[in-house]
């Protein structure tokens, strides 16, 4: 799988989002041109200012950064206009505004296929990257007695959700359950993408990235869901109601936050940090990520990510 050559035009869907905004920044730093899709141009200037603040000269931004509106993620027509003359696509756009919305899952699948059908029209596109989630292969406290790999799928979560099976017997699983619609949406969208790539004669490689809980400073705008949940700990808040109106942070697995609170106590002693959340046993599942470690050349530590988040918030 060859690297995308310098000065390629990369379309980044939902470029104003938390992860996608960083994808845009690093693509620009690597010498590429970026065409970012947004639902509204209102956030475009904010993101452009953030890129300038992070070292991209204004002249470069004017030459190598452009925005296009895609306000219907399932519109093949809109994606087709967005992908004209593009060399690569990074697809991260997915609405999580309402996890109880019955359309979340079918809309995610429809959007994934619309992106791929549009990309297939342009032989210039050599790679499509899907930003998926670790939950497509596992959800705590589910556990297998082996390391999970990219060949695994979270079929158990689909079975529980689609058959409306009881989860009250396991308090950790019960906390995670309100996020199952997001999990199922991501699983079905990614599976549909791989089936499309396998069956159709496409000009591009398909790559899927499975991030876990993502932390670090925001480039612009309001705090996103996961860094917002972590940041709530600086306000002595274990509900995360400001960032998790439905469901609340109490539905998120505690072991994802206990270490964060410990780091806050160490680096921001004046902050009002909550006590550790009850039921914070580490998830025992082993994951195989040797390939991603080699590709990245290492990882930014949890401590640095959390400290950078706190500093970015003025602590």
Report on this structure.
The chain is an alpha/beta fold. Helices cover 39% and strands 10% of the residues. It has helices at 18-29, 44-53, 58-64, 76-82, 104-120, 155-162, 171-176, 180-199, 225-231, 258-267, 290-296, 302-312; strands at 9-13, 33-38, 65-69, 88-91, 127-131, 205-209. A six-stranded parallel beta sheet has the order 3-2-1-4-5-6, with helices on both faces. Helix 5 (104-120) links the parallel strand 4 (88-91) and strand 5 (127-131). The chain is globular, with a radius of gyration of 20 Å. The protein starts with 8 loop residues before the first strand and ends with a helix.
Q: Can I get a quick summary?
A:
By secondary structure, the protein is α/β, with parallel strands linked by helices. 39% of the residues lie in helices and 10% in strands.
What are the salient characteristics of this protein?
single chain, alpha/beta, six-stranded parallel sheet, 12 helices, 39% helix, globular
Order of helices and strands: EHEHHEHEHEHHHEHHHH
Stretches where pLDDT is under 50 for at least 5 consecutive residues are 245-249
Q: Sheet bearing the most strands, described?
A: 6 strands, parallel
* Overall pLDDT: 85
Q: Cα-atom Rg, whole angstroms?
A: 20 Å
Strand order of the largest sheet: 3-2-1-4-5-6
Query: What share of residues are in beta strands?
Result: 5-15%
Report the end-to-end length measured between terminal Cα atoms. 42 Å
Q: What structural class do helix, strand and pairing data support?
A: alpha/beta
